[in-house]
Write a structure and sequence with these properties.
five-stranded mixed β-sheet; Glutaredoxin; globular; alpha/beta
Length: about 170
């Protein structure tokens, strides 16, 4: 009886451990890569913009906030990359999750952020993507398919990134 109990117990532990390991390995592709980017609309003041408005262009969809140090760190390279790539139909769509509109507007002005950016204080757009750590960026091709995902601050002027964006 004692051996049978130990066998059952060890079997249960091994099964649980195996299931946990299987759950941790989701492959080398993050969720959404290779799938159609979820569409959303944001109304910010007098503008109402949908992600689908950018079809036909490569979109660098960046979720960020003014209170986020890594977001602040990456913003200059994002602005510079946008300037370099705008003639190749690459558009940065920067979605701020700031609740404070005054802080958002002040940040854009003080830091000379010359990007297409809107504020989604409801955070519905980033929630749709499962984004809760900032910055988080999705590269979406001309057909609306998510091709890459970056979590954290990125130097958007790295040759590998410029080359990747150029080939889409």
């Amino acid at each position: 009886m004692f051996r049978y109990y130990n066998f059952v117990r060890y079997s249960a532990v091994i099964c649980c451990f195996t299931l946990l390991l299987a759950g941790c390995h989701s492959g080398s592709r993050p969720p959404r890569i290779g799938t159609l980017a979820p569409d959303f609309s944001i109304a910010d003041g007098d503008r109402n913009v949908s992600l689908r408005d950018f079809r036909g262009k490569v979109v660098v969809l960046n979720f960020w906030a003014t209170w986020c140090p890594p977001c602040i760190e990456e913003m200059p390279s994002l602005v510079e990359m946008q300037q370099r790539m705008k003639n190749r139909d690459v558009t940065v769509f920067a979605v701020s999750v700031d609740a404070d509109e005054t802080a958002y507007r002040r940040f854009l002005k003080v830091n000379n952020v010359n990007l297409f950016t809107l504020r989604d204080s409801s955070q519905k757009s980033n929630s749709l993507y499962g984004t809760f750590k900032f910055p988080e960026t999705y590269i979406i091709d001309r057909n609306g398919i998510v091709r890459r995902k970056f979590i954290g601050a990125v130097n958007w002027n790295q040759p590998e990134i410029i080359d990747f964006l150029s080939k889409l």
